Every structure is written in C-alpha cells, then in structure tokens.
Amino acid sequence: MSAPVLLPLGPEDAQEVHALESVVFAEDPWTFPMVAEELSSPRRHWVGVREEGVLVAWAGIALGVDADVMSVGVAPAHRGRGIGRALVEDLLRAAREAGAERVFLEVRRSNEGAQHLYRAVGFKEIGRVARYFRNPVEDAVTMCARLA
Ligand SMILES: CC(C)(COP(=O)(O)OP(=O)(O)OC[C@H]1O[C@@H](n2cnc3c(N)ncnc32)[C@H](O)[C@@H]1OP(=O)(O)O)[C@@H](O)C(=O)NCCC(=O)NCCS
C-alpha cells in the first residue's frame, strides 16, 4: 500500500475539518469556532489526508518545548491502512523540527486502538486523570514521547 500523502491544513479547511470531526467525535465534537481558531493559531502544525479531493483524516499539535497533540482522526471507512500512524509520525517530526523535547497527549482510557497506535510510535503512559473527558465522562490516560 502506498504511503498516504499528507497536506498542510489551514483556516480555509475549517469547514471540512469540523464536518469530519463531527463524524469521528460525534459524541463531543469541537464547535466550528474552536476548529477555526485552532487552524489559525500560531505555533500549531495541522495536517490532513485527502482522497479524491475529500478530507478523510486530520491531526494537529501545539508546538513548544513541551508539545501537545490536539487532535487525530481518520474517517471510519479509511481506518486500518496506516493513515493514523503516518499522521502521528508527522506530528512528531514537526515537533522535533520545532525544538520540542517532549510530546504529551490525553486519550480515553477505553480507546485501546489509539493507545496502541501511540505506543507504536514511541509514546509511554505516564499517568491518568480522573474524569478528564466528558460526553461520556471518562478518565484520561496521559502519554508522553521523549524526542531525542
Ligand atoms: C485511532 C485512529 C486515529 C487510528 O487510525 P488508523 O488510520 O486506523 O490507524 P493505523 O492504520 O495507522 O494503525 C496504526 C497502528 O494502530 C493500531 N490500531 C489502530 N486502530 C486500532 C484498533 N481499533 N485496535 C487495535 N489496534 C489499532 C494498528 O493495528 C496499527 O498498529 P501496528 O502499526 O502495530 O500494526 C482511528 O481509529 C480514529 O480516528 N479513531 C477515532 C478517533 C480517535 O480515537 N482519535 C484519537 C483520540 S486521542
């Protein structure tokens, strides 16, 4: 299978990202203003995958010495083909290039698929936060990747 082609995302993609986010995180999606602000913010790296022009996956990270993964999602019909892994690897590359030493994220305790993906690219569990997520309320697993 050929590697997915990753494209930078910006404010002009906010509508599409919001529509996909509303499918992937149907229970608690970001609002359109939240998505639009994120895609316009400085010190962010947002990236997506299009198939036949349609956005099927996106991911973003807040850059800094300590970087934070903001969001990662792949449309259900496009999962299991390495797109999620390619996106997260690209976030790590961007963080490293921007001088990050550590990358953090929070993931739902029940989301074993995402935790598997994050471990596969170098994240380790460093703690848990009770009731971090809402809709439904759930504990977070906090993970960290140390960049060489
Ligand atoms: C998590 C998600 C981004 C994975 O995307 P994907 O394109 O299917 O992932 P990939 O095909 O790149 O798989 C990467 C690795 O994770 C594993 N993986 C992915 N989904 C999995 C699942 N549901 N169960 C077990 N392992 C899973 C794959 O087996 C693969 O492991 P390997 O490299 O050891 O073979 C996607 O399922 C998704 O969008 N889920 C809903 C949103 C979400 O949970 N986002 C993360 C929130 S923190």
Characterise the protein shown here.
- The N and C termini lie far apart (29 Å).
- The model has no long low-confidence stretch (mean pLDDT 96).
- This protein has 148 residues and is of the alpha+beta class.
- It has helices at residues 14-24, 32-40, 83-97, 112-120; strands at 6-8, 44-51, 54-62, 66-74, 102-108, 124-133, 138-146.
- It is 30% helix and 37% strand.
- Strands 1-2-3-4-5-7-6 form a seven-stranded mixed beta sheet, sandwiched between helices.
- The chain has a single domain (6-146), classed as Aminopeptidase.
- Helix 1 (14-24) packs across helix 2.
- Strand 6 (124-133) and strand 7 form a beta hairpin.
- It binds coenzyme A.
- Coenzyme A (COA) is lined by residues 24, 72-74, 79-85, 107, 111-114, 116-117, 120.
> What hetero molecules are in the model?
coenzyme A
- Distance between termini? 29 Å
Strand order of the largest sheet: 1-2-3-4-5-7-6
CATH superfamily: Gcn5-related N-acetyltransferase (GNAT)
* Silhouette: globular
Largest sheet: 7 strands, mixed
Determine Rg (CA atoms, Å).
15 Å
Tally of domains: 1
DSSP strand content: 35-45%
Mean pLDDT: 96
Structural class: alpha+beta
State the CATH topology: Aminopeptidase
Quick rundown:
By secondary structure, the chain is of the alpha+beta class. The protein has helices spanning 14-24, 32-40, 83-97, 112-120; strands at residues 6-8, 44-51, 54-62, 66-74, 102-108, 124-133, 138-146. The protein contains four helices and seven strands; from the N terminus they run βααβββαβαββ.
